User: Which sequence fits this backbone?
């Protein structure tokens, strides 16, 4: 019984690790940067929101794992930006609240 439990835990651990690292999609989104904050209780992460169009209330929430990129985005608050992102299959609490991880801006 202990052997099966150990095998199950090992397989589950590898599966969870793979799910956290797997890039489900990669792309870009454009809009006006309307929110950027450093938040969290246990893990402080950079979180932001992009307003997707001027005539709509649609917003897109994302996380920024790189503090340097977060500082660059702070300088662009209220402006139109294009963000490059990767979407993880499963989010990581220590990286951000969302599974969308922004890694570039233009």
Assistant:
């Amino acid at each position: 019984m202990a052997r099966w439990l150990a095998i199950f835990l090992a397989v589950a651990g590898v599966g969870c690790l793979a799910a956290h690292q797997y890039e489900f999609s990669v792309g870009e989104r454009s809009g006006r940067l309307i929110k950027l904050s450093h938040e969290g209780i246990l893990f402080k992460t950079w979180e932001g929101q992009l307003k997707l169009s001027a005539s709509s209330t649609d917003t897109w929430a994302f996380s920024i794992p790189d503090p340097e990129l977060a500082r660059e985005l702070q300088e662009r608050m209220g402006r139109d930006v294009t963000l490059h992102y990767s979407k993880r299959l499963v989010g990581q609490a220590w990286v951000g609240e969302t599974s969308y991880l922004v890694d570039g801006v233009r």
Observations:
- The first strand starts at residue 23 and ends at 39.
